Amino acid sequence: MAHQPDARGRGESQGAPLRRRDTIAAVATPPGRGGIGVVRVSGPLARDIASAVTGAVLEPRHATLAPFRAADGGVIDEGIALYYPGPGSYTGEDVLELQGHGGPVVMQMLLARSLELGARIAEPGEFTRRAFLNDRLDLAQAESVADLIDAASVEAARSAARSLTGEFSARVHALVAALTELRMHVEACIDFPDEEIDPADRAAQRDKLAAIRASLDDVLAAAAQGAVLRDGLTAVLVGRPNVGKSSLLNRLAGDDVAIVTPIAGTTRDSVRVTIQVEGVPIHLVDTAGLRAAADEVERLGIERTWRAVRAAGAVLFVTEPQRDATEEELAYLAELPPDVPVARVMNKVDLTRETAGVQGEAAGAVLYTSAKTGEGLDALRDWLLEVAGWKPHGEGLFLARQRHLIALEEAKNHLLDAAAHTQVFELFAEELRLTQLALGRITGEVSADDVLGAIFARFCIGK
Ligand SMILES: Nc1nc2c(ncn2[C@@H]2O[C@H](COP(=O)(O)OP(=O)(O)OP(=O)(O)O)[C@@H](O)[C@H]2O)c(=O)[nH]1
Ligand SMILES: [Mg+2]
Questions:
Q1: Nearest CA to ligand 1 atom 27
Q2: Is the pTM of this model over 0.85?
Q3: To test ligand 1's pocket by mutation, which of 236, 237, 247, 346 has the most ligand atoms within 8 angstroms of CB?
């Protein structure tokens, strides 16, 4: 066969045997005070550091209460030391965890002690990177470590945990396995003239291809929904002064985030707050009301409004229902970027039952709300979810990243091309190979070093 379908190419581990790594250390718990703080050490010196600090030979994977000592024998802290010999550890190397009292000075002293004993400070994400390089986690799992830590809702955390335990990777691996099988089948046909191929074989190949396409579509749908959970939507509240933008923001956030007064031109700066709607993060931006600015501060504020609008995933254009849209409002509406979904929000419906008609182009969604009574806000939330691309999907989402979606889309396109070329075995086989390569990037079987660097650099230190 021309290509090894499951060839691995993990950057540093490619070809030459793993080079002996140095020992890294970091405070693994967040800065600040807490009941417990953990210093984590990984690498060949972990064992020696353990005995130098605790004065004991630690039994693997047993909690040992011990004094943690400085070089002069003075006690820094008393805590629990845990030693995990490699490869059965998080990183796959020898790992030491010193669980002390979570004060910043204690933690820094313990870290300094580890450095004194030969470790160096870990880079962001380096523990997880080593776990990946030592095959403890694949790339999608490693990314989900960061996503689980950063999860902003229960739903996001659940989806990240599903990726961490390998469910997402298992689905991708199943696709790769099916592709490998189909490729072997197709590549075996390459050397034979067309008339020698059993038509039943061709039919079987087409069936297999169809099955792979269907399950790729499933994975893509679950991943796309997961990406919504991770990234959410940025929605900007825009409109004339005094229409109730800040009041709507406060009501949606359930908190007095922005100042509200009857004075037109209250909000000067953009105010941001993230709310959760069914677990989907919606980043709301309240802005300075649009009008011919009265002073320099307001002018700068309105400039910021337009900047926020240009970066928006959705615009809530707020007006009052008891009057028709003004010329000015219609002009502002016309200035909104054409590709951003806009909802016309008629606020203050509690003041009047007679609502003016909606004017202006592309009426799109029209919502009637009252920031005062809360009327219409459920419909507003529903609209935001719809624009975010959220469909109630139940279980089975993966907290996918854009990187994963791009790879899945690419795989899908190659499968489409494969389907178009089932008659020419060379082309068919080549498209299947490209599909497999795209999928391999998700789990990191084929990843360039710069991609790995970019992924792990976004972790915090100690992870
Ligand atoms: N009755 C009623 N009053 C509202 C409603 N929403 C806002 N208001 C009032 O309208 C006034 C202006 O509200 P804001 O939320 O400050 O309006 P804004 O659009 O943020 O105004 P600027 O910041 O000046 O652009 C305040 O007196 C609010 O109490 C509503 O739904 N019903
Ligand atoms: Mg305001």
A1: 262
A2: no
A3: 247
